[in-house]
Amino acid sequence: MTAATVAILTSPPSLPRIARRVLPGFGLTLGLTLVYLSLVVLIPLSAVFIKAGSLPLGELWNIVSAPRVVASYRLTFGASLLAAAINTVFGFMLAWSLVRYNFPGKRLVDALVDLPFALPTAVAGIALAALYAGNGWIGSLLAPLGLKVAFTPLGVLVALVFIGIPFVVRTVQPVLEELEIELEEAAASLGAQRGQTFRRVLLPLLLPALMTGFALAFARAVGEYGSVIFIAGNIPMVSEITPLIIITKLEQYDFQGATAVAGVMLVFSFAMLLVINLLQAWSAKRTGRGR
Amino acid sequence: MSIQVENISKSFGTFAALYGVSLDFPTGELVALLGPSGCGKTTLLRVIAGLETADAGRVILDGEDASDTHVRERQVGFVFQHYALFRHLTVFENVAFGLRVRPRRNRPSADEISRRVHRLLDLVQMDPLADRFPPQLSGGQRQRIALARALAVEPRVLLLDEPFGALDAQVRKELRRWLRRLHDELHVTSLFVTHDQEEALEVADRVVLMNRGQVEQVGTPAQIYEHPATPFVYGFLGAVNCFRGRVEGAHVRVGEARLPHDGQVDIQGAAVVGFARPHDLQVVTDLAAANGVDAIVSRVHAFGASVRVELDSLEGAADRGEPAHYEVVMPRERAVSLTEGQRVKLVPAQLRVFADQAA
Amino acid sequence: MSAGVLHGRALARRFEANPATREPIWMKRLILAIALTFFVLFLFLPLVAVFSEALRKGWLVYLAALVESDALASIQLTILVAVIAVPLNLVFGVIAAWAIAKFDFRGKRLLTTLIDLPFSVSPVVAGLIFLLLFGAQGWFGTWLFEHDIKIVFAVPGIVLATVFVTFPFVARELIPLMEAQGRDEEEAATVLGASGFQTFRRVTLPSIQWGLLYGVILCNARAMGEFGAVSVVSGHIRGATNTMPLHVEILYNEYNFAAAFAVASLLALLALVTLALKTFIEWRAGRVETVDD
Predict the structure, then answer these.
(1) Cα separation, B108 vs B103, whole angstroms
(2) What is the full per-residue pLDDT of chain C (293 aa) written as tens digits?
(3) DSSP assignment, residue B106?
(4) Under an 8 Å CB criterion, which residues of B touch C?
(5) Is the reported ipTM for this assembly greater than 0.85?
(6) Which of C2, C6, C9, C18 to mutate against chain B (most B CBs within 10 Å)?
């Protein structure tokens, strides 16, 4: 602190950048970071665009707009949106319960919320398939109701809900923990009913976090592969997700087709990344205390 | 509009925040709840508001027992220490909040809400900033919005938790005077919590001094300052010098010296502690003439019209249980002759004595 | 009186005791019931199912599935991949966090976003990019073939894909942590004459150790459990290029469910250990924080 202050006070105002770099290693660490990032992430990723870009535009369009591929978009994006929405509602309730209530087993529940991060997706996939199959614990309960989950689009939804749970819970939970209790006290002292306080005070403050959680869960769900393929049944035009289309094309040595579809997914990923960054900035602005 | 609390007790775990507190706040007064941090003053305020439920005792608002009334039905205005403004709402919407959440049948029309909010914003001199959001306001401005928001529901009583605690010194003084004027205009029974004695004495009609969950003294600022009821009150309100000794008739014997006292303890030989304010002590340089306590001048702070002198007791005094330091305030002209290191005698005009609990 | 210092049970107790933040009891029960049902259906039962299915045919079948030679080979490969990928990303994470958290420069936000990029890329696409680079028809495919170097459908490809998908874990854990800690302590150490490395080892490292460990265990869990990306580049050669998740897939597709779930149960155990460590670290870090207050 003192060092920096003195440096800033004594150096000419035109050189604040240099004055700030009291600590060593800036060039070295930034350089290494950029090199490693480029080698492992940026250059490999650019391969997709270069390869896809080498295709004639018409052919590219034909690949990415083929009926089977379009059907997979519809399933992937539709189920992902729905799964993210389900997670937003129930994840919020879970986060709320973890922050606001005490109940037996709370610590276990809190720890297991992150299971989808820690459990390999393939394991999640076969476990869900076993549970929701017609003879599984849950599937056998749903079967008499005429509900088939495993090997239908509904199965895709179940898997996507599973992998998205931590996103909403873990984005909302800290915000909920840090909300000043005084806001609710103020609302109550002004005569607001509990529901009004929730709707008019809590929800607007939590909305950015909820939307960030939604976006994160959605983005993750769209790219998900491992947990879905075991429970989806993978019937073309019905329960085949886009990442599986890429795999199928690769298995047929159709590199160009696979790359073209991968390009579509990457563009979507970048767009979501942008959206999520904007949402997080908004969230920080709304939940951070001003001055 | 009156507030009474009867026998309020409240504990948090093993910590007793309030212990059998009974108070009667008359209608229309501005009362300060004063005390060191942890004395229970904020807890008392929150119990009155209904934000905290007392373990025992009753809160009576306007003659009605409100102990079981939910905070949202108590019609109290509460101003939070850090304001608790709704960040996502404009200044206008913050103030309108209490009106908008009323049940439909009691809710004023949109025009009426707008009229009332603007009137309040005028009152707190914030109307031009009605469309701003709280993060865009200064601390003093937020404080005034918090007050306007609390007033919008036409509270029966106004409760303020450390209303100036989060402001810097300059703004604080300004807002203090402003709150006093505002109260004179509105005459809502108001309670504010503070740990700043100057603030309490300057602003309030009446001061409740609390310590360790109990009330030490209730009175007007003058009463509290001039006639402290307990050693704690004496010590809490401003700088003080204390002398330990035994009663000998109209005097207290402190070491060699015999000092006059106010006769509050007149048991011969009783161990007492006597208090004198810095301006109630005389510094006498003629060591032979005076009947006073020995001391050595250690520092003379000479700025402004009066001079503050710090003194140390003689060597060995601390071993006899006497305090090691004294503080005296005197007019500048009388301090001219004092030099640091000089030996003097301290002569109090009159000691306020209390039985010495420590002896 | 601010809520910031309280966590967990103490925080919830405050909400439950406060008349202004308390729901009616029926509403609280309803919310809890819905939330916990959701938890049981989607998190708890799948976990239980793994172990229950694994042991369905008894301990003997279970153990036999684990000591079978292809299973052992897949376990070895999985550990090998993690042993290479995790330290690489650990070192990178520390270096990147130092550059980003301790200095101001233009494009810092963009760099932080780029580091997070692998998280938003579908694992399948992550695998595909290495096929495009090193596959038979890839940019370097011919050259690699001429020099008899196998990357794709071999262990190096699996390692590369794993490094890619676990790339951000350590860095993204450390960057906010180190940013929050500021530069005062490092600057003080520099003023006192410490070299850059001494400053890092004696001042920075002790204060980020829990965050570092946190990042490492999450990175490790993902490295051992990655499926999609590895699946694309592995070639699925039994006993040679199958990691545990891939081995699970093969067994499952062969309707050898007991064996599939047996291997899966090892991965589930790994997940549980990861979560237990993670909870422990959060508890430790929380405690250190409270002591500092």
Answers:
(1) 10
(2) 333 345 678 888 888 888 888 888 999 999 999 999 999 999 999 999 999 999 998 898 899 888 888 999 999 999 999 999 999 999 999 999 999 988 888 888 889 889 988 988 999 999 999 998 888 778 888 888 888 888 888 899 999 999 999 999 999 899 988 988 888 888 888 878 788 888 888 888 888 888 899 999 999 999 999 999 999 998 777 777 899 999 999 999 999 999 999 999 999 999 999 999 999 988 887 765 544 33
(3) G
(4) 42, 50-53, 70-72, 81-82
(5) yes
(6) C18
